[in-house]
Amino acid sequence: MLFIRAFYHSLIDAIQGLPYLPGWEKDIYPAPDVLQTEIGEGNFYFLRDQDRIASGMVVNQKCNEEYRNAKWPEDLKQEQFMVIHMLGVHPDFSGIGFAKEMVRYALKIAKDAGMKAMRLDVLKGNVPAEKLYINLGFSYVDSIPMFYEDTGWTEFELYEIKL
Questions:
Q1: I need a surface site. Which of 30, 64, 78, 106 has the fewest CB within 10 A?
Q2: What integer best gives the mean pLDDT of the chain?
Q3: pTM score
Q4: Residue 144 three-state SS
C-alpha cells in the first residue's frame, strides 16, 4: 500500500504547474483508506517500468451517486457496468502509451465480467483525459456537477463505452 500511495504523491508533485490537472490532492484524492480498500478488494491495477510504478488505476462497480442524474444512453443497473477511477500516468512515462494500455486492460476486465458498459468521469477541462477516452472509443454522455473531497462541487464530464 505504501508504494502505491507514494506513486500518487509523486504523480501529484510532478503534475503541479501543468495546464491540465485532475484536481487530485495528497491523501484527499486518492485517499489512503480508499486505496487500501480497493487494493484489498483486488480492484487496483498498475504498470511497472523496471523498479517504478508508471501508472495506476482502480476498476470497480462503484460510482458517484450523481451518476444517476446523468443522461446515459441506456438505463443500466449498477451491477451491469464498471467504472475506471484514479487512472494516472506519472509524467516521466507520458507518451509511451501506458494510459491506453491501462484503459484497454480495464475494458478486458469488464468484458470478462460480462458487463454491458464501462463508465467514467473526468474533471471538465482535463483535455488529455478527454482525448484519451474519445480516441479509445468512449462517447461523451453528459456534463454534471458532482461532489468529491478534492474538488468540492465541480463540473465533470461523463463518458461511456458499450462492451
A1: 78
A2: 94
A3: 0.94
A4: strand
